[in-house]
Amino acid sequence: MAEEKFGSEKEPFPWHLGVFDAHCHPTDTVPSVDSIASMKTRALTIMATREQDQSIVADFANRLGVSKETIPILKAAEKSQGHVVPSFGWHPWFSHQIYDDRTNGPAQKSQTPSKGDHYRRVISPSPEDGDDFIHSLPYPRPLSELLSQTRTFLQRYPLALVGEIGLDRAFRIPGTEMLDDGYENDPTLTPGGREGRRLSPYRVDLDHQRTLLTAQLNLAGEMQRAVSVHGVSAHGIVFETLKETWQGHEKPVLSKRQRKRRASVDAVHKNEDEPEGERGNSEPASPKPFPPRICLHSYSGPADTLNQYLHPSIPADIFFSFSTLVNFSSQSKKAVAVIKAVPEDRILAESDLHAAGEQMDDLMEEIIGTICQIKGWSLEAGVKQLASNWMHFVFGRR
């Protein structure tokens, strides 16, 4: 049976209403920044993943970053392109390159693990002494340094997110052997990725991944920033890790009568024109150990797991984004079921592409058309809803 295709061929795509990419990686191909200004997509949420791309994301933000003053332009139903929202984080694929130095006492502060000891501890199966694989890896960085760097970027860019962060049980670290497909280094690609190497048998210890994820979630809570979370073959553990950060901060579950009464009070006092933490004369939201908003990017979990994320006691707003490259690359039945089940105000669209430009626009048009057909939305209604959802996720307001 041929794979089912989605999308509308009759209704013209309403780019003028504003299309927003919730998760992408144009910093993997730096020259593509020059094409952002001519893209149809109004704004890109761009992710950092490793040591080599943190400052590149910052450079993109310096050139094209959104500010509080430009938010009204993003919301206007008019032609406006070339905006980016930066996101700073350390991807689980590179988590082995970090060691946790935060438990050291004052007398141990100058001590760091040897390269071999660190990698044998966080890589499974543990490489043997003298293994060339360990020799090929970079010297690990301290987690405290990573968190300090990320905090500095978040302070410099008040609208920046934390991401891409998360857990991945399936990923294998690239080895030293090159593929037999004539791969040659592409000078336009940012270093630090796979770079044409065969995958090794080694994986990053999941507990180590969780340490880095929790630390970055706590930082996002401290800075009150949204996060973009990667989760592959670890959906239950991702949820448990997130749950641990908001333990003790759960919302009380109200009765129907109590919810109705609270809604009427909120309607009187709520001013949607002010950003979260700046409504009226109130002070910014106090730091918490968990992020205020969480996007599970290219969500590949089953539909029956959604309820745990949408329980009324959860004190964070959880969003689910979808991409053609991940969710509709092969079998799409699971993605269709999940998209049908996700509440209309918690769904996002993304390209997850490594380069800005026409292909990224095409992917955004395709995934939005797919979402709209599955949800039974017109393209106009769907683009408006997805834009509102993106505003809520990124800025904490619609």
From TrEMBL:
Give the compositionally biased regions (Basic and acidic residues): 263-281
Q: Where are the transmembrane segments?
A: none
What InterPro entries is this protein classified in? Metal_Hydrolase (IPR032466), Metallo-hydrolase/TatD-type (IPR053044), TatD-like (IPR001130)
**Which Pfam families is this protein grouped with?**
TatD_DNase
Q: Where is the composition biased (Polar residues)?
A: 105-114
Residue ranges for the region (Disordered) are 101-120, 178-199, 250-293
Q: What is this protein called?
A: Cut9 interacting protein Scn1
